[in-house]
Amino acid sequence: MKIKHLFFTPLLFVSTAFAQQQPDLVHYVNTLQGTNSEFKLTRGNTYPTTALPFGMHTWTPQTGKNGDGWKYQYMKDHIRGFQQAHQCSSWTRDYAVFSLMPMSELVVDEDKREAKFSHANEIAKPNYYKVQFDNKITTEIAPTERGAHLRFTYPSGQKSFLVLDGYIRLSGVKIDPKANRITGWVNNGEGFKKGWKSYFVVQFDQPIKAYGTWDNKTNTTHADSTEAEGQGKGAYVQFKNGAKVQVKTASSYISLEQAELNLKRELGNDKTLEQTKAKAAAVWNKSLGKVVVEGGTEADRETFYSCFFRASLFSRKFYELDASGKPVYFSPYDGMVHPGYMFTDTGFWDTFRAQFPLNALLQTEMHGRYMQALIDAYKQCGWLPAWSFPSEGGSMVGNHGISLLADAWAKGIHTFDPKEALDAYFHEATNKGPWGPANGREGWKEYYELGYVPYPNYRESTAKTLEYAYDDWCGYQLAKMTGNQHYMDVFARQMYNYRNVYNPATHFMEGKGPDGNWRPNFDPIEWGGPFTEGNSWHYTWSVFHNIQDLINMMGGNANFNAKLDSVFSVPNAVKVGTYRGMIHEMTEMVAANMGQYAHGNQPIQHMIYLYDYAGEPWKAQFHARDAMYKLYNATENGYPGDEDQGQTSSWYVLSALGLYSVTPGTNQYAIGSPMFKKITLNLENGKKFVIDAPANDKDHVYIQSAELNGKDFTKNYITYDQLTNGGELKLIMSDKPNKSRGTAAGDKPYSLMNQ
Fold it and tell me: In this protein, which residues make up the domain named Glycosyl hydrolase family 92 N-terminal (predicted)?
């Protein structure tokens, strides 16, 4: 699909009261990227998100039924509402949702009120969404952090109705016809304390002509009713025929008064939607302008900024500003209002790998606030978050909150008490919580006693062992960096436990029983069982903190590199294993046709960069660029699988910079092959780091030589400090690999055993 632009000039500069010479990068972004997804094959599992960076609320058109995870699917041609949304992916339910739907005849039933549309009549940008239905009703949306400015334009002479749907579960509405507004609350979502509410205000700039409430359980309407509370309660209003109605809305988790304050602060001065749209464009251009790329094709720039947009949505802000401008938040963990910052809507199993290391580099102030928020969440619910949505869900495996904390400390982001962090992690690592496998540790006793999690006593046991060992190294690393000998001793014992699930006879990670015997009939292409959404080809590389030891266990560089090569050369065959049928991750690996390289899921996404550790960095350069070209684009088919809260996008953004975070918890980024001729990082500290590769193109993917700040540079990694201190990395690119550069022992990135 060719992307349609609001603007076309590559570096058009906007000059409004809200933008100060920011390059117009927002026009590159297509928020429909990855929306052509379904249960059996996902191309991102995204929806066209209209929001500000890390905004507390987002807005999107809705093609799916209320409560359906498939919120918006590109192949659908009917829209049934425009939602306030927060959903992480199609595999999770949403929370704090209500929707608005314009129509010319009053129909409340969501299946019957839906209206047909064409993508040709749709504009999907971060700062502006617009669609015209076939019935000629037009909807426009421009976002703020906690609200939105909408405009509904009805055909001349036709009736003008607007239906507010309270979504699933409890809701309450109150219509004030004299003030031309609806106030209310919704109570949908998982894991909240009993009685929580998301309060909203909806203000119209046109007089209400008629009104009523309705019930989406029975689809019955009650004309002239101004209030309703209960399951699925909603409201409707009617304006004069052929109206053009501006709607300002904002929400709060704290109170209706705070929702009013959010509305006034964020939208009070905007008389038109165009003003809100321009402000949002300026905010996005400043955010996207933290990375300015030059060279490459138009499609390359579209893909880069579409991915950077998506990487800049998660985790969402969960705090508000009180009357004095100070941050406060309703805690989804203890149901109380606290001063300070809180963030939510992410799963650390996905995002510890690239999304948070990207934020550490480009969103440093927010990242520091996030680290303290992790400690506050622990104090409020008794556990470090593992999957916050918006409270702790404990999904997937591992205890990767400690990865975020250790990584921040290693990069000089010291915004939290490390002793509190280590205490919290020790509790996490020696207990099992009530919410999901990653809330605390499944199999923690056996992990300590045997040195691994046994199978089949625990599902996904080998994946758990590998990720627990990495997390224990993160605990050790944070303790070491902060001089805490006690916790160094505690975690040093476990951080080598990956060795206990490596079978030297097969050179794969395998499942092991409590008696020490390997699981019988091992096949590395068999999914599930001791692995999570993958097989041994994917998990054998999950020794993030000690790749050199993995190289040694495999018999040295030659054997290690040969096995890396095999990932791409062996057939892309699948044995479904304990899944008993093809799941979408399997289908996506087969469709990618890159052997057993299953980039559509997170466990193997770092594997390409392991050539940097074994003397063949040119292969990392080739495969990184190959994956970027083959697996990503800015269309509705833009991802190779679940995008997952910014992680897969962040892989692309970092890789397009020529970087990747193989070992969060160190200050290093492994080096690959940048996508563009020139990349400028505009850092929050006011400094710039430039990656200059003038010969770079689709054929010249290999680094022939490099200079860092004018000095010869052979290392296969660069440090956080080298990046954030500003400077220039100059790369001479070639269409042929330089097989002598980056091959010395000192050129390798971090491994524990080399320290």
Answer: 28-252
